[in-house]
Design a protein that fits this description.
The structure is a single chain. By secondary structure, the chain is α/β, with parallel strands linked by helices. Strand 8 and strand 9 form a beta hairpin.
Length: 300
């Protein structure tokens, strides 16, 4: 992971309303937003950010780019993400949701081959409080500290972050993997990153009912490879199976090959809780209990 105040950031779809709004917010936070890309809109400057028609043109003008944040329409995502990969960008945040599942399967295959890290779809990105904002995180909920936060939820991350902040437990980083059935990054990948991160002393992992069974792999990885304390919380523990949290991608994934269909098979929160408890990983009963468990872990 290459993430510092000097990291060069590109915004694709910068002329989209959300793209323009959050590009300005990221720059105001101190993020080094060096350029924007919007086909047919190149040549202008928005909030002090030069806009280009192509990623290649932007990189030629500003030099190698570390991260791109994509706000384009869902049907365009595969093409614009591949354009970024072709330009040598190896960290991609997909804010856009409802990307066609087969587009994501093809994109992730190429990302894996090129060692490109993808967050999303439907990701708010990541934030290093007080330093760097990449995406749509509401920065007022965060403060600098030593708690690493990883989530597959959507707005729940703000409730968790606010609870930690109010308990004087700041965050070293907060990462949103995306809330859809098929996402680019795994819990295990970011657990490995935070295990090596000197600024992180404890990790909070937040998931929700529905989605795949990656928690089994994450719990096993924590038991074998993670030496820092990990606290987990699973939203929707009491949601009936008939009302599992899902989205169109989860339904469409049933038409994918068997391996991908199994990966996106929905699971209940109770099943996920059982996996973590079996791995002796503390599980919060509710968001308000997370700061208590985090403080307990820090005190040991």
């Amino acid at each position: 992971m290459n993430l510092s105040t000097d990291s060069k950031v590109l915004v694709q779809g910068i002329t989209q309303p959300l793209g323009l709004y959050y590009a300005a917010r990221m720059k105001a936070y101190g993020t080094n937003v060096v350029a924007g890309v919007s086909t047919g809109q190149g040549g202008q400057t928005l909030h002090g950010i030069p806009v280009f028609d192509l990623v290649e043109q932007a990189c030629h003008h500003v030099g190698a780019v570390d991260t791109t944040i994509i706000f384009d329409e869902s049907y365009q995502i595969k093409d614009v993400a591949l354009e970024a990969i072709d330009a040598g960008i190896r960290q991609i945040i997909l804010v856009t949701g409802s990307i066609p599942p087969l587009d994501m399967v093809e994109l992730l295959a190429i990302a894996q081959a090129t060692k490109t890290i993808i967050l999303g779809p439907s990701s708010s990105g990541m934030i290093v409080p007080g330093k760097v904002l990449l995406g749509t995180h509401e920065s007022e909920f965060y403060r600098p500290g030593s708690v690493g936060l990883i989530t597959r939820g959507s707005y729940l991350i703000y409730e968790v972050a606010l609870g930690l902040t109010q308990a004087n437990l700041g965050q070293s980083i907060a990462i949103n993997l995306g809330s859809e059935a098929i996402v680019g990054s795994s819990f295990s990948h970011w657990l490995e990153v935070l295990e090596k991160d000197k600024a992180t002393n404890v990790i909070v992992l937040v998931d929700q009912t529905g989605g795949g069974y990656e928690d089994v792999a994450a719990a096993a990885y924590i038991a074998q490879e993670i030496h820092k304390p990990v606290i987990s919380y699973i939203a929707g523990r009491y949601t009936p199976e008939t009302q599992l949290i899902c989205n169109p991608s989860a339904r469409l994934s049933t038409h994918l090959p068997e391996a991908m269909s199994n990966m996106t098979k929905m699971s209940t929160a109770q099943e996920k809780v059982a996996v973590f408890k079996q791995g002796r990983i503390p599980v919060a009963e509710r968001p308000s209990q997370i700061p208590i468990l985090v403080q307990k872990a820090l005190d040991h």
